[in-house]
Every structure is written in structure tokens, then in C-alpha cells.
Amino acid sequence: RAGIRVLNWGIRIPNRSPGAGGAGAMEDSPPLASWANPFVQPPWQVALWAVAYALIVVVAVVGNAVVMWIILAHKRMRTVTNYLLVNLAFAEAAMAALNTVVNFSYAVHNEWYFGPAYCRFHNFFPIAAVFASIYSMTAIALDRSAVLVGLIWLLALLLAFPQGYFSVTAELPGRLVCLVEWPEYHFSMTVLLYLLPLLVIGCAYAAVGRTLWASAIPGDSSDRYHEQVTAKRKVVKMMIIVVCTFALCWLPYHVYFTLQYLRPEWYLRRSIQQVYLAVMWLAMSSTMYNPIIYCCLNDRFRVGFKHAFRWCPWVSAGEYEGLELRSARFLHTHSSVSKLSRMDTTTVASALGAADEELDEPSRAERLSLDMTSNGSSRSDSKTVSESFSFYSNTPT
Hints:
Elements: E1 4-6, E2 12-14, H1 24-27, H2 43-72, H3 80-109, H4 115-122, H5 125-141, H6 148-165, E3 167-172, E4 175-180, H7 185-213, H8 223-262, H9 272-297, H10 299-308, H11 328-338, H12 345-355, H13 361-388
Antiparallel strand pairs: 1-2, 3-4
């Protein structure tokens, strides 16, 4: 078989340039008729796929925009973790807006309508957005500072640069195509974009899970310590669901592009077009699930979404004040609890005593004695939990 050149998004054409077969590869090339577009679909199929892809764009762009608004417009939502979630939401909204429609048009018609400049951009920035998404999840799993947002995007742009640099357009009889001249780069992308970050995230969450779930909360711990650990467990569960959703959505995509080197004959069948549209839809749909996950598993995000969509007749507004915490007293006690593991027993007793200033003197003395005893036995566990995943102590639940 003559050499194969891999087009953007999996469309394949015979390689007209001499490759491993030397000059003889030119003689083995198929006749001109085989360059015709074999993947023309009936209008009703195109319409169904158009609705499916349009759903991704609307849900992803609107949902991630609301997530960014909830975090940036409310002071108490501006935590380190949530700033990384803003970066994740921006990357996914950008990918949905700039990538999905163009991918759909190209996959349906197998003809590039957008010119050589956008061919390069299409293979550069949306790929960088995917890098930014998965590396934001990695930063969250590793408990890194939000300052890394700039570094994440710098690394994402550098890693996506070869994809854009080697993108070109080629003229076939009756149509123009956009392709990547360096197909081997796909293996590097699979490692850097999927396997490596998921491995790091898996190890990080395994360590955090062992800290949070492997040992039971001491029975004599204070109620605030119980609340702190429970809140951290909820956030970790939510982020694990986010990562698993990303992994499941992108797994068929990477398998599809890897198999083309093992079973190239499969990609010459007419049915491969429908397979590709389904695989690409699943990968692109990863951009719309995170807002739904946040809304379902996080009380503050749920309140924010209800407020954003309060104009809908079937949405109850809820208590919008929940985004700014419930009261000054709750804010004070929550702030004290977030520092629980770094305070000695005397300071802990004083903080809890101040938070419960309305208690009478006998009750306060009893509470101080109880907390000093309980924290003495559980302080080491609390310190381990906080130091392993400290930013979750300020994450709304």
C-alpha cells in the first residue's frame, strides 16, 4: 500500500509524495477517481448530527459562562480551587465555541471551507484549550496555586504549537482539505494530553483518598473537625467525577486515531464516517458536563445556577444569600475551622469559645474542656488532612 497521510480529524488520503517506498510509491497511488468524496450523507442525517452538535455548543458555552460568573462575581467563591475551575471553564467554553462547529462541518462534508490560516488556528488553539483543561485538573489534584494558570496556558500553547505549525491545506479534485503533515505527533499528543496527566491525577487523588477515607474520623473529634473532613470528601468526590468524565469522553477519540495505524483498512469503509461523528461528539461533549456536575454536587453552585436561571418558570430562585455565606457568625466560625489543624489546643479552645460567645459561662467552660480533650487526640489526623489537601478547607460545599 502507498504511504498514508493523515488528515485533520481522521480523514485519510493517499500520500502523493515519495515516502518509505521511494519513487515507486507514486506508481502505486490509486486513480484520480478515488480522490472523490465518498462520505456524502443524506440531509436528514446531517440535520440530526447538527442538532446534537449544536446542543454541545449551547450547553457548554452557557454553562461554563455561568460557572465563571458564580466564582468571579461572589467574593466568598474566590478560592484557589475555584480560580482553577474558572480556568477550566474558560478552556472548555473556548473549545466548544471555536472547535465544535468547525469540526462538525468538516466531518460531515469532508471539505475545508475556512482557508489555510484558520486551518492552522483550528489545529492550534482548540488543542491548546484541551491541554489547558486537563492540566487545570492536574493542578487541582496536586493542590497547586492559582498562580499556575498563566504557566498552564503557556505550556498548553507550546505543546499545541507543532499541531498548528504542521497544518496545511491540500487541493483534491473538487474540494479542499485541511491536514496535519506530521501524523506521528498524534502519539505524543495521546501521551501528553491524556495518559500522563490522568496518571498524575490518579496518583494524587489516590493519596488524598487514602488520607481522607482510609482512617476513620476519631470518635472524640469536635463537630467542626467532622464538618471539615466531610466537606473535603465531598469536594474530592466531585473532582474525581469531573476527571473520570473527561477520561471516558476522550478515550474513544484516542483509540480511534491509534487504531488507524493498526487497522488502516477499517478507515476506508463508508460506515467510518458515522463512527467518527459519534466519537468526536462524545469528545466534544466533555465540555458541557462539568457545569452540570457542579450544580448537582455543590450547594453554592446550585444556588448560583438557580439565580442565573431564575427567569425560567420551572426554576425556583432559592436563597441567593447562600453564595455569600449565611451570617456573620457562620463566616466567623467557618474561618476559625479552616485553620483548625494549624492551631494548638489553647488557640482552638479560644476560637470556638469566641464563636459561641452567647453560651453562658458554665456551658462555655464545659465546651472548652471537651474541645481541648478531643483535639488533643485528633490533632495529628487533622493536620495530615489539611496539609494534604489544604485548599479544600475554603472550598464551598
